[in-house]
Structure to design on (440 residues):
């Protein structure tokens, strides 16, 4: 596997992990805990993150020439989602998944 | 346009309308109102409905031989979402969109 | 409905129409005709267009603060897809849907 | 992790691997090789498989009560895609990914 392919493969895996972590924590933590966990901005950040990761995986796995746009948007959204999770607390898994995904996506978008 | 094609086209449009209505009302009504609007079961029903409609549109527009499975699942999910919206109240647009989508999807799945 | 909302609603509809038109024509025209219709670049452009429109609809209907990134990417991809369809020929419906979607998405991304 | 959760986690990973393998091989093998690789039925099977896996991951990671419908449909579609890939040849990676995904999805749907 070339270096370019290995980097993309790692980014796909980080996006997949971030997508399922955000989706699971939204459903099993945020919607159970309520309060700040269900504030509009936080839930929108979580849903944006799930959708951004999904689109990123799709464009990268198709080796689309446009994958960099989706990686750039995903990096931004992951940062916002990680910050929101950190502020609310009790979302460490989500913070970690978003930070790792943000880093990979930034590298792919460069 | 043949009758079969016209029926599918109508179903695609009902799914598209249901998807965007649920997505908009989740964000702009449920996440603003809070209370019963952000109960786990209700939000999951709304998210399932958005995803079910999206998958349905995708399989129908590709004229997939498997579209009937996705229409059958979408009809079930739309019924659950419409019931949940009706019970909570203030979600009439969503109830109407889900009922219309449920009817079309049931017909496509038959 | 405010002007901003009406413009977004029109963009959502143009994306939905572009998504289903590209998906249907890929399956029912390109994969039947073969030849230039199944060249790697053309099929990738069609698949990118379907995915870009789907992501755009999702981010706009959630009123995401990041919808402009997805609209900007979709406008670019629609232009490439329209050009590819025009060059191959026999894809007028697709060209029209992509051009309309590109125009709406450019306006939303501005 | 409970047994139920471990089984679902494994199924999510098999769906993710199947989705990206099919998407990559469609773009990098089928659209390059042409001939039987771009027959309508084969490409539709590949696209159905990508979409089925994507929907499955989404419903499972949200712990949706309806995930079994999406797993059942995905199992069927993976079988069709694996058979199509086997018949065409040169698609061993895809066959393996589809078979593993089919097995997991069948178990989740039971």
């Amino acid at each position: 596997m070339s270096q370019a392919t290995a980097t993309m493969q790692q980014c796909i895996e980080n996006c997949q992990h971030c997508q399922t972590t955000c989706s699971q924590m939204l459903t099993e933590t945020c919607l159970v805990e309520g309060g700040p966990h269900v504030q509009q901005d936080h839930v929108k950040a979580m849903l944006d993150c799930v959708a951004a990761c999904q689109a990123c995986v799709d464009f990268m796995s198709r080796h689309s020439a446009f994958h960099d746009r989706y990686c750039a948007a995903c990096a931004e959204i992951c940062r916002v989602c990680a910050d929101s999770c950190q502020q609310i607390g009790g979302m460490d898994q989500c913070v970690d998944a978003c930070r790792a995904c943000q880093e990979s996506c930034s590298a792919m978008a460069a």
About this structure: The first helix of chain B runs from residue 3 to 33. The CA atoms of residues 68 and 109 of chain B lie 4 Å apart. The interface with chain C takes residues 12, 16, 19-20, 23-24, 26-28, 54, 57-58, 61-63 of chain B (CB under 8 Å). Chain B has a mean pLDDT of 97.
